[in-house]
## 1
Amino acid sequence: MIESIKLVNFRNFHEKKLDSIQEKNFIVWENGAWKTNILEALSLLWNNSLSGLQIENFVKKWENIFYIEYQTSEWDTVALSYDKEKKKKNYIVNGKHVSKKKFTDAGYKCVVFSPIIMNLMYLSPSLRRDFLDTILSNSYSEYSNVLKEYKKILSSRNKVLKNISEWQSKKEEILFWDTKFIEKASKIYGYRFKLIHFFESQISQSLEYFNGKIENIDFIYKTKIDEENIEKNISSYITENIERDIILAKTPIWPHVDDFDIYVDGISLTSYASRWETKSVILWLKLLEIVFTEKMTWKKPILLIDDLLSELDDVHKDMFTKKIKYYQTFITSIHIWEENNIIKL
């Protein structure tokens, strides 16, 4: 469990130390008081930026370096610094500089809750893909690198396709990138299907919140891939559709365009369910994220809840807080919602 947090030159904070951190922590202050920056600092320690901003944007104005540190109940000290001038991160565990992998393995994982997640099923498929990829990056230390390599190979393949379409490259040049693409795409699917199967098997448990009004809830992953033979399936499809890819000058299917949907009694959640029902299912999906992350890492994740409670009615608040009571939690709010550890900035 985290027991203290220290920030130096981070966003609006010159230096801030939070001691006596407990299991449930409410960061309470008025709007515009930088509450979310505390959660942002914690999320960066687990490579899971709350806002998605580039890391240089977290350095305090007129400064070059920020420093974030937390101490645990096991007497470990985990810290991250970033030098804007050198564009370099430093990972530190118990006073020693370590590799990114050792740093990631040493620390906790975090699961982020923010109001935007309530729109998960209404916004673009890219948000839903990011949702899956964030869970997998949290759960498997190597996944982030696999995803990064996949995106680079995809970009290179698309560039060669464009060159072929413009008669600047020979058709044979695509074979090199096809081989690499098939390899990385297959790895991405290997991880994704583990998560997909977990969601498929667990999502129906959310039925308990619908008082018998709904009979079935199904999680459906939308893809062209045949899971039984992923690598062969991708290879065959690419070979058969290479002329189409050249004309389009891009790779139009596979992990970067897949999507998922949730069906309530056979009908898409977004086209049928009420806002209340949609919130219930999405909250359950996020709660499953906690369970999956803990199951894969053998560590209880830290929960970062950014002003989400204002989006929930009393029934959802009660459901939510009962499910998260076994995890250390940091909650930003403008109101004191219940008697726990109150941190005033």
## 2
Amino acid sequence: MLEIFVIGYCIYFLVNIYTSFMQIGYIKSAKELQPIILEEDKYKVAGNYAIEKEKLAIFSTFYDFIIFMAWISFGLSALDSVVATESSILKAVIFINLFIAINWILTLPFSIYQTFKLDKKYGFSNMTASLYVKDTIKSLALFLIFGSIVIAVVAFIVANFSNWWIWGFVFIFAVIILINMLYPVIRDKMFDKFEKLKDSELEAKIEKLLEEVGFKSSGIFSVDASKRDNRLNAYFGGLGSTKRVVLFDTLVQKLTHNELLAVLGHELGHFKNGDILKNIGIMGVVMFVFFAIFGNLPDEIFLGAGINNEAYGIIAIFLLFSPILSYFLMPIISLISRHNEYAADEFGSNLQSKEDLVNALLKLANENKSFPLSHPLYIFFYYSHPPLVERFKELDYNVYNHGDEALKAKDIERELKHGV
């Protein structure tokens, strides 16, 4: 039975690698064409960054495959022999913490390379070694404290309830909702510096926009995101009484008031269209399916991996194999998400104006060096937002006109098909 799961992981691995290679080939051809959306000097840079990032992803995928095979072949059984305690709850806490810690240590070089080499090379990362260490220590402390509590509760449920996977799902789903509520508060207290917006004129405009839509928040904040990264972003964080508008300081610096209001109008479109509740519902359904599958696995799978069908073994198998299900479910979820993004764009452009939203998206794309073209297969698996070209098309902005040079969509498509 374990062999079926391993074959599933191999298929996931091969599809993942194939998609990355197709994306690299596509971008190599696309970046040689007439620039669209991005400024000419940033178009090739964005393409080069996308290619380098995808090459890193390929190496990471191969590396993860080796680690996965090591865990299945001998790693889990070896760790099981080390963690010797008769308490099922304590064993689950120690085993899973060690399992996650070993995986984290093994994959740490990729995180360091991404942050300090690749992202710095392309002008994104402002991370210092001291800040990276501080962030890591804080994250580990949070996980060791709260993660251990969650693991212990799940282990208790497994040991004391026959249909444990139902109650386990209820508990984990509640934890995720709680995390979403507390996320901006945790970020404020431990990682970022949240400040009330200093631009009183902008604050008044945002409050008027929120009031117009009926969005109640606990405040409008600017966060010092630039100490880590130069990318532009904004989000509505928290749920219920913890809801707040959070603007990256980089966004406030780069966008005009009207452009920023258009971006917030897009986010408010998600609120007005009920996308937040829809996403919570979808997440709940997916999680329930996961718990139903991993809560009813036969003993043969655990015996094949050299561990017992107990809480620690169930959680470990869940962590190893859930990426497969997630990967092949994501296209469906992303399809729904892309539909919601179009609706949010429409809402935001009506709330402010199409011109303001287009200008904001153009600045976001240029500042974040987001390459505007991707292979259809890559879009299918990874894009939770529609490609920029498609978003602009819906906003009636012709990305193919550059002064006297008219570059039609069909010409791009023809050249790409010829080049890939």
## 3
Amino acid sequence: MRKIIITCAVTGSADTADKNPAVPVTPDDIAASALDAAKAGAAIVHIHVRDPESGKTSMALEHYRRVVGIIRDSGSDVVINLTTGVGARFKPGVDDPLKPGAGTNFVAPALRVQHVVELKPEICSLDIATMNSGGVRDDTVMLNTPAHLRIMAEAIKNAGVKPELELFDLGHIMLANDMIARGQIESPAFFQLCLGIEWGAPATPEAMQYMTSLLPDDAIWSAFGIGREEYRIAGQCVLSGGHVRVGLEDNLYLTRGVLAPSNAALVEKAVGVIETLGDGVASADEARRILSL
């Protein structure tokens, strides 16, 4: 029986707080939701923070400090995974594309990892991705240049943190593999395939199969599908040798038309998928061994 790591992506950065009341917004609520997800079976909690007043995405160090402090003080052994994805969005101005338009949050790479350097979680995400981002009417780009990625990867390594390499399309895997070959990222690397996001790789078994065929032989990988594809991809991961991610960052519904009441409920459903397919759910300490933390 293989042990499957469940990662719970607790809140994300999209404007979803007004779409499902279960999406946690304040640092205290984010921490509480993460701990509930851990009790339900998540070995890793992937954490963004939000502005408590507006519910919008935030990079505030004090919010990260509060969330991490609550989780650590709780006595839970769950593995903390902090995002570094915020700060990569650029939207060209309408009249002058060299000037940032509304919705831009593009900042220097050192600012994107400052909370990781200070708080030293066991894992943090690293988006190996430059791509169009948003709907067909949105001109926003998620921008992660190789130079910026090198700076972030070095800071993450020096902090003693393992990067979770978030990959949205095929070329992102090739760039990640190059960074590993150059020693910028240590092996065995932990890859997260992000499927079904506009305008990246689709959430299909064929896309997953080809993406995993490009990973290093010693890679540990996980994947998630957006929205209704969440549990189809979860099942495919179990069958294909990967690990699983669910959570309110990726999907707001428990079943069609039924809003998820909590992150814990989404994790419990993932536990059911894994056990139905004949495998087991990894504890936090088992996840540490699998990932060589």
## 4
Amino acid sequence: MLISQALRIQTQDIVTIVGGGGKTTLMFRLAEELAGSGRHVVTTMTTRIFASQMQRAPAFLVLHDEQTLLAQLPQALDTYGHVLVAGNIQVEIDKVAGIPSALAERIAALPGVDALIIEADGSRRLPFKAPAAHEPVVPPSTTILIPVVGIDVLGQALDAGHVHRPQIVAELAGATLGQPVTPEIVAAVIAHPAGGAKDLPPGARLVPFLNKVESEETLNAARTLARLLLAYEPVDSVIIGAAEAADPVSEVWSRIGAVVLAAGGASRYGELKQLLPWGDVPLVAHVTRQALACPDVTRVAVTLGAGADGVHAALTGAALTGADVLQAPVPDWEAGQSRSVRAGLDALRRDSAPLGGVLFLLADQPGVSTALLAALIRRHRETLAPIVAPRYQGQRGNPVLFDRATFAEFARLEGDIGARPILQAYAGQIAWLDWPTAEIIEDIDTPADYAHHSAGRAARPGHPAGADQEHGLSDRSEERDG
């Protein structure tokens, strides 16, 4: 994946990069990607960089007079696509000074500038740092703030040989000088309002970049760190990769919510399927448990429509209450499946930190396993596809994961069609997860289905509820009748 895709770059974004472990490399790599796609990109800094690094840009302008620079920049962008804007060149120390933050914002406002990328502090080429009182210099119009850390700092001593300003790092993380740098220390500093999130403008996205991930060992370490970072509310998402690699992004981690669709009336079945017994709990509680048991699911919303009191009692009786399980009432559930889909998504978005995607589970699909949910989320991390869906021998099933790029379209859903229009709109962009067993396309539509599934489950004694389920993907993309 490209860095620009991982960051979800939009026209006129202002990207500010801080931290250590490869800021300048990241800045120029991102600029190359954007210019290569036809966008006009300006790189600059509010700190100093080495003069030799200027050669990584196809053209540069040096600030002597602001009015002249602003007049020259549009033509330079038309010619080169990517232009570096620098302050005075300090030849004696091989450094180039940065520009004032206010000038950076005026550059970003020029009609011909599609993106502005700023390096906003220094780290003495060390992989990890905490900012001093005078830094970073983050323009207030920044839309994406990227704290960078080199994953190679993990396990190193928290000292000046490995960390820039180790005393401040220790203070922010509650650590001791000289101890090994742990993922917990790095996460605490990156997400701290006096650390990597320092001067984060309101509305800007905080997207840490875990750099130098070049092996299975460092990938696993980065995954541990990503999970810790997402526990901090200011963090929007986490990029894992190596800015100098041919494929610079391995995975993008974000919060994934889950909606259990349980509002339907089950008119064809004859009674509420979501309240049928399944092990020691009703079916809706079992499916909710499965979602909660996946460590990569942040929060679960359960829609309540037909039999709302019974569904509420089922969740309460199974101790599925509290901050991790939201109950989303659907008073107009009879108006169609779209109401349930929208209510579940809205509940998650109101009560959660920023979400990267949402899984929609059917309350009549007991075979959904935590392994399946984790695999769908992993596929999303690798692709950032608008939709991730499972299939068996070409047949699509459930659950389906919808990326946040599709969220705005849920508000337009109407009638008894669930999310089908969104699936159709993105049909050519679905990232498929091929599942190996036929059971994943089965669900409960009739009493015979329920008897069959119950008998199959009973035939496997000794398995805790849900632990033996590796199936549960139906051909439906949304709730039909509960």
